[in-house]
Amino acid sequence: QEEIQEVKNEGNLEGLFNSLDKIVEEAKDREEPAWRPSGIPEEDIRSALMPYLLKHRSYLRRILRDKEEENREVAESVLAGRVRIAELQQQIQDRQQAWL
């Protein structure tokens, strides 16, 4: 009895058992079955990670699309600025020629 009590105290087993009881109580109202490992680690990891990875990929694609659009707008702005600079340089040259 003493050894059992000592193991319970050292491992905080009562606290663990209470938390297990709480989890079981909370799970009673769930309609979907609890996740269980299949015994094949690759499939277990895939089933757990794929929804997260697909959601993250979707998020990254959306960010990429936004950045590409932003870069396109900046490139158009730069080209318009270069055209404007070329026009101004031409005007300056024309006015210089008019003074000479």
From TrEMBL:
Cellular component GO terms, alphabetical: MIS12/MIND type complex; nucleus
Record-level GO BP terms: cell division; chromosome segregation
Compartments, as annotated in UniProt: Chromosome, Centromere, Kinetochore; Nucleus
UniProt entry keywords in alphabetical sequence: Cell cycle, Cell division, Centromere, Chromosome, Kinetochore, Mitosis, Nucleus
Location, primary (coarse class): nucleus
InterPro entries for this protein: PMF1/Nnf1 (IPR007128)
Secretion signal span: none
KW Lipoprotein (keyword) present: no
Record-given protein name: PMF1 factor
Organism: Neodrepanis coruscans
